[in-house]
Amino acid sequence: MKCLKINGGRKLKGSIDVHGAKNSILPVLCATVLINGKSVIHNCPTLSDVEVTVNILRYLGANVSREGNTLIVDATSISRSNILEPQMKELRSSIIFLGALASRTGQACLYLPGGCDIGLRPIDLHLKGLKALGYEVFTDGHNVCATRRDVIGKEIVLPFPSVGATENIILASVLAKGTTTIVNAAREPEIEDLADFLNKAGARIYGTSTPTITIEGVNELNGAEHTVIPDRILATTLMSACAITGGRIQLNNVCMPHIMPTLPVFDEMGCDVSYNYSSVKIKAPNRLKRVKSIETMAYPGFPTDCQAPVMSALCVADGTSIIKETIFENRFKHIEQLNLFGADISVNDRIAVVNGVNSLHSANAKCTDLRGGAAVVIAGLSAEGESTITDIQHIDRGYENIEHQLSLLNADVKRIDDEKQQIK
Ligand code: UD1
């Protein structure tokens, strides 16, 4: 079993490029199913979630090749309309194939998806959206099938701005007759990125980054070239790592407007943050200040994906910080692990109370999920002595070679193979 060994206590310094956004790449890859000809997608780091998605595309019959960080997908010869259970269970985003595949082949027969265990994560809004468009949808709690009937654009009102449901409805309607309107759509930057890619391929999608998205159906989509947006969650993760170590780093290849929702938190921690459109510098004080209150919200609120990494930094802040998780009901699993480092965090339902301690000590801890795993690594960077972090397959889903990235920033992090390092 692979694990990370971290010798903590070193201040992060230096500069690094932020890689492409996992949460953009996955729906963009699903979208290639709808396209005749070659899609060339740049800025795709090697993440395990991306590789699983590529394997799904290959299973479906697409040709996919990688040249460095560029993926070239030709889905012209797609021949299957089902996805194997193990592939579906490996990531949540596999459900985004539902709309695309049903639209392309006339039918999609999938298993219910897997992904990070951070809550119930139902797909009722995805299914209601597809039904409203005219797809026949069947689910038995294990499988889900969507069959294309007379698909005609509709107004679909989402009771919650679900990212995945918005993506599925876009993909299911982009080749439909007529105009689809999604009211109370998710406004996350990754939705805009998906629409940018599709529009380059010939789609007519308007209003992304606003609560109302309009999709005018087109007859066909043709190959397009696209560069995926920088990963805003990675950027905030690295800023949190810098903050906890009292470091000073520069992040290049960021899209600053996407990071804005997290900046007030770093300001409140006492970090000095300066930026232009595509790079950000952060200088952390020797002792962070507490943050009075953070509440996760849909974009442009504070992202739920940044909750765990930022919480980790706040473990050593001066005073008590309150963090409320409003998006997922089970996204505090990392707390037990952070407390192994000597953090003082208690939980009451969806509220975490982080009492800042003077310092963390080294620990053996495990990654509970993708972002929770990043939080545990961040704690290890601060803790004096050697920490061992196991279950790092969760981290590999969304951070490319994290030990390399952190080493470039002066951290001492190594990946080792160690059969004995299994933490219960
Ligand atoms: C996406 C992101 C994930 C991020 C989340 C919220 C990807 C691959 N993943 O996940 O990293 O944390 O957005 O920003 O892009 N809900 C329902 N019914 C549905 C769909 C969602 O009740 O049909 C609920 C969920 O249980 C959750 C909330 O809506 O409580 C948000 O979920 P959603 O925005 O759909 O997140 P994902 O697309 O799964």
Model description:
This protein has 424 residues and is α/β, with parallel strands linked by helices. The protein folds into two domains: 2-18 and 230-423, UDP-n-acetylglucosamine1-carboxyvinyl-transferase, Chain; 22-227, UDP-n-acetylglucosamine1-carboxyvinyl-transferase, Chain (Alpha-beta prism). The chain has 15 helices and 25 strands. The protein has a four-stranded mixed sheet. The radius of gyration is 21 Å and the shape is globular. The two termini are 13 Å apart. The relative contact order is 0.15. It binds uridine-diphosphate-N-acetylglucosamine.
In short:
With 424 residues, the chain is α/β, with parallel strands linked by helices. It has 15 helices and 25 strands.
Taking the sheet with the most strands, its summary is: 4 strands, mixed
CATH level-4 homologous superfamily of the largest domain: Enolpyruvate transferase domain
The CATH topology of the largest domain = UDP-n-acetylglucosamine1-carboxyvinyl-transferase, Chain
Number of domains: 2
Strand content: 25-35%
CATH architecture of the largest domain: Alpha-beta prism
Mean pLDDT: 95
Strand order of the largest sheet: 23-24-1-25
C-alpha Rg (nearest Å): 21 Å
Bound molecules: uridine-diphosphate-N-acetylglucosamine
Give keywords.
2 domains, binds uridine-diphosphate-N-acetylglucosamine, 25 strands, four-stranded mixed β-sheet, alpha/beta, UDP-n-acetylglucosamine1-carboxyvinyl-transferase, Chain, about 425 residues, 15 helices, about 30% helix, about 25% strand
